[in-house]
Amino acid sequence: MKKLLGIFVITALLCLSMTANAATLIGHWGFEEGSGTTANDSSSNTLNGTINNAAYTTGKVGSYALAFNGSNSFVEVAYSALLNPDTVSISLWFNPGSSQVMWADLLDKGHGAGTTPYYGGYVLQYHEPVDGPPYTQGTINTGYGNGSTFPSMNTGSSYLDNTWHHLVAALGADGMALYVDNQLITSGAGQGAIVDNDSSLYFGRHRTLGRYFSGLIDDVQIYEGVLTADDVDRLYSQGTTVPVPGAIFLFAPGLACLAALRRRFLK
User: Fold this and answer.
1) Keyword Transmembrane helix, does the record have it (predicted)?
2) Among candidates 196, 205, 209, which has minimal Cα distance to 118?
3) How many angstroms separate the CA atoms of 104 and 52, rounded?
């Protein structure tokens, strides 16, 4: 009986773990206000941002997106510990201009210069060939600080085409993955957790160095954990402004598993 009870407990824990690995929404900025200087976060965390010199324009998802002029446009979301998980997944739509300044930032959580610690935070930014091969101008880098290094990935292809693209990056302890337009570009094991820093979150610029992005950004979503390929497909294919319900999809199988165990061991 004790052996059966042990098997039941272990299997039950495995069932419940099905519900524990879902990515959890931290913030969702759809830019659907249409006017004003506040970018509302539609998640329950209300991490609202302040719009600086970015203009509303026709959106990819919903009615509106924000246009960034490449010189002084950005959105700032004030520091919150919620934005510093061990692993983060970022989803956004972007429509880039044909020319970008060196290391133009789509999204920056204060990585590198001017931030404490230096090796903390995370970023989505354009790569510059000044740093040499194998990458070329117009490709996009993403990476994070683990306290001592910046593990990173690159799209390999250039995006300077005035066309909408969907970009998803997972970074941190639980793994790394980079998707463009629903295609997995690269993935790998995580190299430690993201280290917390003291920075705000920025769309369209670097915290201290400028590096202003030129183009459009829409429907920014940030999650704790790793978005699955199915999650990415839903975000891309449905053009949703609704948070990915990963936990719901996982919770039901977990309950079904427990119900089956109950019938097996308690009948």
Assistant:
1) yes
2) 196
3) 16
Q: Which amino acid is at 86?
A: D
Contact by Cβ (8 Å): 125, 144: no
In sequence order, what E strands does 22-136 have? 24-29, 38-39, 49-52, 55-58, 64-69, 74-77, 87-96, 105-108, 122-126
Residue 251 pLDDT exceeds 70: no
Torsion of CA 204, 210, 214, 220, to 10 degrees: -10
Q: Which has the closest alpha carbon to 189: 170, 202, 208?
A: 170
How is the chain split into domains, by residue range?
A: 24-241
Neighbours of 162 (CB within 10 A): 11
The secondary structure element, H or E, covering residue 3 is helix 2-17
Check pLDDT > 70 for residue 92: yes
Give the C-alpha distances (Å, rounded to integers) separating 256 from 134, 260, 261: 48, 6, 9
pLDDT digits (tens, 9 = 90+) for 183-219: 999 999 999 999 998 899 999 999 889 999 999 999 9
SS3 211: coil
Tokens of 12: 């039950």
Q: 24-241 domain in CATH 3.40.50.2300?
A: no
d(CA 79, CA 66): 21
CA distances from 11 to 3, 16, 17, 171 (A): 12, 9, 10, 30
Report the SS3 class of residue 73: coil
